[in-house]
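Sequence only, no structure available. Ideas?
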Amino acid sequence: MYCVCIADDIEMSTSATYKLINKITLGLIDEDILSPEKGRRKQEFPEIKNKISEILLKDSSFTQRDLSHDLIQFGICKSQSTVCRTQKDMEYTRKR
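Reply:
I predicted one. Tokens follow.
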């Protein structure tokens, strides 16, 4: 209830006010409270990068779906979209 009153007083959305109050109660400092968390957190998959490089150096005619199926043989189960993001991160060109 107090969150709605504060949001009305400072003309801010209730969801943003609620998030701000939660950060303050956690004891975060100003820089942590004000820093925006935008987008998806970037994940690093060094083992996938190594295997993709290894597979593509042998034969570069694989599609992303083929790569995701071949990674299963190495015990790495990742989707085609993860393979796509990894290739983009590795700056490999993709054919359509």
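The chain has six helices and no strands.
Hope that gets you unstuck.
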